[in-house]
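hey so i finally got around to running both of the ones u sent me last week. sorry it took forever, my laptop kept dying halfway thru and i had to restart like 3 times lol. anyway pasting them below in the order u listed, first the sequence line then the structure token line for each. didnt double check formatting much so if smth looks off just lmk and ill redo it

first one:
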Amino acid sequence: MSANRPNRTTLSSQRTRRYSLIAAALAVCAGTLTLTSTSDASRSAQRADTYANLPSTLQLTGIVRDFRERTETNGHSDFERQPTRGFGHYVGMMADDLDSSGKPVYVSGGKKVTTQRRDAQGRNIMPVNKTYIQSRTGDTTPAMETQDGGAATSTATVAQWYRDVPSVNSSATLPITLKRQSGTNIYTFDDKSDSTYSSRGGFFPINGQLFGNSRNETKNFHFSYELTTKFTYRKNAGQIFTFTGDDDVYVYIGGKLVIDLGGVHSAVSQTIDLDRLTHLVDGNEYELKLFFTERHRSQSNMRIDTTLELKPAVLPAVSALAD
């Protein structure tokens, strides 16, 4: 019997080969598990971001116009102006329709808003009724003063905000980039997180440029920004546009005023749900025009949140914008 028993050297060799085979098998399994885990993680990431097919950014270019404040030589009377009824959010300064040149039309000094109108989700919406904006269950009742607010000087002075006028303003093109929030179809521009503006303490695009800053200032507080874009309306697709900022902001869609944030005020937000707009037709392309005016110290805030896939529009040649 003892003659047929394998010796210790043989047993050791067999164990070594067996352990090697087990180790190799485990290594293969480990590799398979790693590959499977990586593949699962990739699939999970794709499932988490159902909007991965959308562009990660939208780059839009508008026109910035610089003004001198009212106390300077050739200063503009609307810049550093305090409205007659005091600082605050005013509505009704601009007509519902753009003029033949695609510009806002000043119609009054506005009414000061004392209580915002909100939708069922708690978002600020257009404070006054418009025939082309549907009301919905859950919309709250706003409140505003009845007196004219005196938020600007005249039709003639406001017309200069978004037009090139020699000696009154000086202009240049200005791009902004909206970034898609991860896992959503919401595009955002926020001066507080934007790489260009986060270190500037607000939306200050032309510090030390064009006419330059007011005396003893490190920031340029007196300018307007005009942005024209295009998009395709998709009914029941949850298309919204929200603006948060100061001072005057007017947004027109299809030529109609849909966001009205007039006056000299701190940052105020307003949202338009495009499915409320009765003048839009599913599948048609429309212009979205934004008119922003910063006209008083000491803040300048700008944030856009939208589910619209906005496209750039054609701009005038830069050479035509020089003062």
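and the second one:
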Amino acid sequence: MALALQSRVLNYWYHGAVGAVAKNASLASRIDWFKPPKGSDEYIAEQFKADRDAVFQSRLHVDELSQTPRGTLALIILLDQFSRQIYRKSPKAFEADPMALSLTKSAIERKFDTQLEPLERIFMYLPFEHSERLADQERAVQLFTNLVNEFPEDEFMQLSCQYAVAHAEVIKKYGRFPHRNEILGRVSTAEELQYLADGGGF
């Protein structure tokens, strides 16, 4: 059951190209991860909501899958990425972030990330970028800068690093992501409202 879940998550997310994806995916196809095609939220909810909820609420399969690099990656994608699509515009979109970040930190401590392809490492690192703690944001910038240094010709690595820097700048300035305020019932400052009016995101 656990390995079946890992396979389903990774095969969906990487279009069946697990492992070799970094060498084969075009820039255009990679962009779909951050600008999901129409209907993808509904599909992910239909296919993975029960799995995501079981992993988050009762840690189903966590002990087993967190023992391997790609098992951990599957858990992180399920908690970090799928939560955002299944529960878009709901506080539940962010509720699994601490769990995903904990898995990421543990994986890096065990050097699991070094056993993955570059495009797999990106999604292992993203929980740092989604955190509202500045120290985590700085760690994200460091990790993505390392990827750029390792793969200087890869345009997507450069783009990912730019996004990491942009996320960190928002946290440095506001101490949180203003676009989450309304969803989480937080009161925005005048400065944050102007940022949002100007099209600020994340």
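quick thing i noticed on the 2nd:
The mean pLDDT is 92.
anyway thats it, ttyl
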